[in-house]
Each structure stands twice: as structure tokens, then as C-alpha cells.
């Protein structure tokens, strides 16, 4: 029928906490259909498939090869992102990949290089869809704070159960809290301030948990614009979750998402302050991000943040890692692993909704 809406058909690979959340989002949206799920745990795959009336697989390759899937959600541990993303892109699918994009920079580059004509790669970044975060972006675009001067931010939680968890294993995760939580803020740093050029960082294992990754990370980033960003990420942030201040030549913004708070404070140099309270709005950033994603794909708009944005956020984490290890300032232009940078063709492919053959 002429008025019938197109259904965007999804497959979900990885059925842990985030994968189950993605399954629920697909099932609840009016313009999406869940076609298949996959997980290495056969019992989990079968139970999820049967509960949701869709096909299920233990082998993800069978899922990404299906002709009746438009988009693949990748919700596996970081080290396994590359194989699924490359397989899905090579089969002409759009991909929505959880953050961080990968466990190493070279993995991320190979994922971007796998993009083909008509495919897109998005990385998860639900913080962009916090109402106070988005309103702050509007204030900046309106010039309310003038030229940005510096940003201070911290993000974190209590670490949950790190002992024995895959995200505490450096071989699987690629890093600790600075790669896990920090990429959320790094994405916002670039969204607000543009590109970083250098970093002084230090990583700490303060709680001495049974893993070899940092539970606290600290970094000072110099931006191409001349602004400076300070970012701390923590797994000992008992009160959680995120706080960000941004100061400019004409005023400031304070984004507060600690505990049950959700607010934005705008102030100018005269002392005038304009508070906005969002705490009465039920938290729904994952849902809003998904709505935006579906609309983007159905209308042919590049979903944001892109895979390239995901790589850039990873570069910020790895710049801090390198600086902490060397005791010196690190430069992001030197940092993309053995590949030593991202070539023009890969960057164009990663930034375009059409890609490059």
C-alpha cells in the first residue's frame, strides 16, 4: 500500500545487558522489525529468539549474511567488534556498534575501511541525547558563551563487579575506564570544541582490583582551536555519573548529571544565571538515540556519531595512555597504531552515507 511505512529490519549480535536493551528498542519501535539475534551462548540465543519470535544463531556469520536484514546491532565485547562489523559491512548492512568502537586503533581503522557504497557505521553515544547536553550545544551554536576557552568534565560509576568481568581484561576490552566511560566525554569534547591535537595523561589503578586496567584516568587535551579540555574518568566515582563545565569568552555552561540530577546552568559575565531543570523528565537517552538513528537511516542521512567519530574518541583515550606510559606529552596525529594515521579515502568513506566503492 502507498501509505505503508517501510520497516527497518534488524539483527542483534551479542545478547548481554546492552544487547537485550537493543532488542527491546527494536521491538518497541513502530518502524523497525527484529529479524534475528545471535550469541555464542546457545541457550541465551535460543531463549531470546523464542521470546521475541525471531530467528536465532550461535554463529553470527549466518545472521550478517541474511538478505532480509538492513541493520546489525553489535553488542559484543570490544575485542569482537571488528569481526562482526567487517562481516556486516561487507554484506551491505548498516551497522550500529556499541562504544568504544574497538579494542585497538588498528581494529577501528580496519572497520572503517570495510565500509562500502550505501553502508553506514554508527557508534553508540547516548550522552549526546541527554536533554541538557543537547541544549548546551544549542546555546553554543547561538553564541551564548562566545569563543570556548576551556572544558572540565568527569564521568564514572562505582565499577560494578570488575573482578572477572570481560571489561576488566585488557586483552578483551583494550583499556579500562578511560576507554570504557571516557569515550562518552571525548565524543562531547569534539562535538563542542572540535579536534584535539595533544594530550598529557596519567592512568591509575587505585583500588588494585584483579585486572590490569586503570580504574581512574586523567587527561589534559589541547584543542586545535586553542581551547583546553580536562577529562577524568573513574570506576571509583561512587556517586556517578557525569558533570561537565564549559567556559567561553562571554559565559559558561554547567551540565550536571550526577546521581538523580539532570540540569543545565547558563551564566554570563555579568553574573546573570539561567538554570534549566530536566530531572522530572524520565531518562530515555538510549531510546531517543535509537529514534534518531532509525529516522536517519530511513531518510538517507548519515547517523551520528559516525565510525570516524568513534575512532577519534578512541584516539583521545590512547593518547592519554601513551602519555601516561612515556611521561611525556603525546600528539594525536602520531597515534593510529601501525597504520600511522587515517588515509583520505578511508576518512571520506567513514564520513559519507554513500561511502566509496
Structure summarized in a few sentences:
This protein has helices spanning about 15-30, 40-50, 60-65, 80-90, 105-115, 130-140, 170-175, 175-180, 180-195, 285-300, 305-325, 345-350, and strands at about 10-15, 30-40, 55, 70-75, 95, 120-125, 150-155, 195-205, 215-225, 230-235, 240-250, 250-260, 265-270, 275, 330. By secondary structure, the protein is of the alpha/beta class. The strands form two sheets. The protein has a nine-stranded mixed beta sheet with strand order 14-13-12-11-7-10-9-8-15.
Question: Can you walk me through this structure?
Answer:
The chain is an alpha/beta fold. The chain has 2 domains: 8-124 and 287-304 and 339-351, NAD(P)-binding Rossmann-like Domain (Rossmann fold, 3-Layer(aba) Sandwich); 127-280, Dihydrodipicolinate Reductase, domain 2 (2-Layer Sandwich). It is 34% helix and 25% strand. It has a 9-stranded mixed sheet with strand order 14-13-12-11-7-10-9-8-15. A 6-stranded parallel sheet has the order 3-2-1-4-5-6, with helices on both faces. Strand 2 (32-38), helix 2 and strand 3 (55-57) form a beta-alpha-beta unit. It is globular.
**Number of domain modules:** 2
Oligomer: single chain
CATH architecture group name of the largest domain: 2-Layer Sandwich
Counting DSSP E segments of at least 2 residues, the number of strands comes to 15
Name the helicity range.
25-40%
Which word captures the global form?
Answer: globular
CATH class designation of the largest domain? Alpha Beta
Number of helices: 12
What fold name stands as the CATH topology of the largest domain?
Dihydrodipicolinate Reductase, domain 2
Radius of gyration: 20 Å
Strand sequence of the main sheet, in spatial order? 14-13-12-11-7-10-9-8-15
Cα(first) to Cα(last) distance is 34 Å
- Could you say which structural class the secondary elements and strand pairing correspond to? alpha/beta
Low-confidence stretches: 337-341, 353-357
The major sheet is characterized as: 9 strands, mixed
